[in-house]
Amino acid sequence: NQKRGFFTTHAHELAHQWFGNLVTPQWWDDIWLNESFATWNASIILDRLFPDQKYRNALQNSASAVMRNDSLASARQIREPIERHEDIGSAFNGITYQKGGGVLSMFEAFLGRDNFRDGIRHYMKTFAFGNTTAADFIGAIADANPQVNGEDLRAAFSSYIEQPGLPVIHSEFQCTGDGVKLKASQQRYLPVGSEGDKVQTWVVPVCVSTMNTGQTSSQCFLLKDQSQTVALNVERCPDSLLPNYGGTSYYRWSLPATQWQSLLGSFDQLGISEQISVANSLSAALNDGTMSLQDYLKAVPAITRSQSWRVAIAPRTDVYKIKEFLAAPTEQQALENKLQQWIRPTLDALNKFDTLRPDQQQFRMLLMSTLALGADDPEIRKQLADSAVAYTGFGGDEQLHPDAIDPNIRYIALLVGIDEFGKPFSDLLWRYFKSNENALTRQFMLSAMAWSTDPIIAQQVRGLILSPELKDNEIRNIIYNQMDRQENRQAIWDWTRNNMDALMERIPSWRKGGVPGFFNGFCSRQQASDIEATFAPIIETLESGPRTLANTLETIRLCASFVEFHSKSRKDSAPGP
Questions:
Q1: What residues form DSSP beta bridges with 211?
Q2: 264 has a pLDDT exceeding 60
C-alpha cells in the first residue's frame, strides 16, 4: 500500500507538467483542470507500467467511494466558485480529485480512448503556456470529436462540473413485439432522510450492456431528458441488463427486483470495474431505502466472491453500519458469522499460493483485517496476535524484529495485539514510539495504542494529544482511531470539546477547517447538535470549515435517518405472532 501511494503521488505530480504547468487555469474555480486531470492521468500511466496492479480499477473504485460524499445535499461541485481565501481549501478534496478523475474517465470511455486523447492533445497544443477556463477545455474536446454533437457534449460536461451531486439512473428493459426497449429515467441520488431536491437532471453519457447465454451486447447514448426510451440493438429478450457497461460512468443506477436478481446471477461474468459499479449501486439502493436490509444481505455473498479486493470488501462499510447501529447483540454475532462464511474461502484460496502479486498481497491483508477486526474470527486473530508478538518481541527480548512479520499485515497485527495483550503491550509500543524516528513505525505504534478500548489506555493516549513528544501531524492518528471504536467516541469528542483551543494550536491553519470531519462517525441527531453548537462560533474563521462542518452534520443526521428508516421497515415487515 505504501509503494502504491508512492507511485500514485509521483505519477500525479509528473502529470502536472502538462495539467498545471504547460496549461494553467485562470482562477481557483478551475483548479479541477489541474487536479482532476492529474488524478485521471496518473491511473493511465501506472496502468501501462504495472498492468497487473489494476490502477484503472483503482480510479473507478475511488470515484465510486467519493459518491458517498457527493450524495450529500451539502456537497460541492467540481467547478466551485471561489469568492474568498477560506474557500480555496475546500477545492482540494475528493470531489475535485476522485469525482473529477472519474468524470474524465467516463467521457474518455464514451468518446473512445483515442478520440479523447486527440481532444486532450488539441487542448494542450491550442493553449500551451497559456491560462484557460473550463469552457476552453470543453470546447477543445468537442472540436476534436465532431462525431458527437458539440452542443450535446458541452452540455454533458457542464452538467457534471457545474452542479453538485450525481444522478441515479432508474433502468428497466422490456421485451415486446416491437423489440427490446430500455426505459431510463434520472433524478438526483439522495439517501434516506436527505433534505436535498431530487428534481435535478444531467446530460448523462449512458452505456448499457445486455447478456444472453454468455454473449454480451453493448451500446451508448446520451440521456438528455428526465426520462427516455431507447431501442436496444438485440434480437431477443436478454437474460440480464447492466446499466453501466465497463463500469466507467459516474452515476448510480437501479433495476427492478427481478432484474437485479438476474444480473447478480451473472455477476462472475462481469469485469472488475463493472463489479465495482454493481457493488456501489447495491449500497446506494440500501441507503436510499429502495432496497430492504434483507434483500441487500442476500446480495452480498455474490459481491464477496469477486477476485478483486476492491469488490470483495465493498459491502463491509454497510455491514459494519448495520452491525453497530441496527443489529441486536445476537444479530451482531450472526453478522460476524456471515462475514466469516463469505470471506474465509477467498482468503483460504489466496493462502495456497507460494507467492502473491502485489494486488493479491493487498487483497490478503484486507481480508484478514475484515475477518479479525470486523468479524472477530478467532483463528485469524490468533495468527495476527502471534505475528504481533514476533514483531515486537513482547514477552521476550522486547526488541523489534521487522523481518519476523509480513510488512503488509504489520499494522493490523498491532491492532489485534493491543486488544489481546492490553496495558503491558501498550507500554512497549510507547517505548518503541519514543525511541523511533521512522514516521511509518511511529504512526503504527501510536495508532495501535489509540485503538485500545481499555479505558485506562484510551485516557492515557488522549492525554498525549497535547504532549510535545508527538509531532503536530501525528495527533490526528489518535483522534481517528479513537473515533473508529464505538467505546471511545464520546470520550474523544468530550476531550476535544474541552481542549479545543489547545488542539487548534497544534493544527496547521490549512487543516483547521477539517477538524469537524474527525467526528462524522457519530450516528445520532443529538451528537450532531452538540458538534454544531461547539463549532458554530469559530467555523467561519477556519479555512474550508463551513463546508466541512455542513458535510459532517449531514453525514451524522443521514446515519440517524438510515437507522430510523430500516428499524421501522424491519418492524413493519416482521411476521405476526
A1: 216, 240
A2: yes
